[in-house]
Amino acid sequence: DYITAVGQRYKGRIRNYEIWNEPNDPTYYAGTVPQLVQLTQEAYTILKSIDPANTVVAPVPYAAGYLDQLLQAGIASSIDVIPFHFYTYALAPETIGPSIANVRLVMAKNGVANMPFWDTEGASGDTTVSELQGAAYIVRRYLVDLAYGSARYDWYTWSKGSTFCAATEENDPRQLTKAGVAFGILQRWLTGASLNGVTIDAAGTWQTSFTLAGGAAAMIVWNP
User: Fold this and answer.
1) Strands 16-18 vs 55-57: parallel, antiparallel or unpaired
2) CA-to-CA distance for 104 and 148, rounded, in angstroms?
């Protein structure tokens, strides 16, 4: 009844429904994996019947082993997207690469390597990073996620900064930090662009090549 009410109320306005937040954490979920799979199956059926264009995103863990359990239990037949949450805290954004690669291996193991993969919550930096470092982190984090196959990445969260993300705004929420400004610049670079390839050389230099929205070739290059 609840899912029906939500789906009907927001039909045509909300398109993406993520079924549960971090169910591997007992803070958020106390049931079993089979129960969560059943919940997802029922939600999928209801949301698709309300609007076939709705996208159903799997319950999103932050532990690859839990994702493996969900896939082993057959959740893939009732979802359109596999999500995950990644944080690097004070570590550089590039350190998230192996964790994303590990999740992609779990997907491949369970026969869903080609299903869309979204990083629906994550960030880099914390209250100890400088404004300039925060600006570098937010840009590089989006690029690292893109390089490792995230079709969507949602920075968490737009705020004054915390123990798990660099600040994007000052104490006055109308005033952006350097990271907030950098986000806008990156958005202008990447909107309508397509990624052509990524290389990382022995010195740790990243080269990401793009075709921009207007058709021009471009590269973003950095070394952590």
Assistant:
1) parallel
2) 9
Helix (H, G, I), strand (E, B) or coil at 16: strand
The most distant pair of C-alpha atoms in the chain lies apart, rounded to whole Å, by 56
122 near 96, Cβ under 8 Å? yes
pLDDT in tens, 155-206: 999 999 899 999 999 988 789 999 999 999 999 999 999 999 999 999 999 9
Q: What is the DSSP letter of 211?
A: E
Instruction: Find, among 155, 187, 153, the residue nearest to 169 by Cα.
Output: 155
CA–CA distance, 63 with 213 (Å, rounded to integer): 36
Cβ within 8 Å of residue 177, ≥6 positions away: 131, 134, 135, 161, 166, 167, 168, 169, 170
Asked whether the predicted pLDDT for residue 55 surpasses 80, the reply is yes
Find the helix packing angle between 131-147 and 97-109, rounded to 10°: 20
Mean pLDDT for all residues in the chain: 97
Tens digit of each residue's pLDDT (9 = 90 or more) over 87-132: 999 999 999 999 999 999 999 999 999 999 999 999 999 999 999 9
β strands within the chain, DSSP E: 16-18, 55-57, 82-89, 117-124, 152-155, 194-200, 206-211, 217-222
The answer to whether 117 touches 149, Cβ cutoff 8 Å, is yes
The pLDDT value recorded for residue 208 is 98
